[in-house]
Amino acid sequence: MTAQPIHRHEPARVPRNAEGIAAALTAEARKEFYAELLAAAPEEAKGVLLRWWGRAMLDTDPDRGMRVSAALAGTTTTTSVRDIIERRRAAGLPVE
Asked: Is position 10 within any domain?
């Protein structure tokens, strides 16, 4: 008998590293990304990577048009931070 995961694990669409992020961006955006990353102080680099990873994820999202339209129309579903913290606590996860 083998255990099957509840949620099927898919490989990351955009790896969370500079190479993966750059590969997902257009040529123009890639230049901006590298310029910002190279200009960042070491303590700022993680923030630059996270911000550009988010952009790369959105740019490569097959449902991008639908998500952008919903955000612009104000119909995107939201969850309060309080609800997220309560869910994490109930699941025994850290909330720092």
From this structure: no
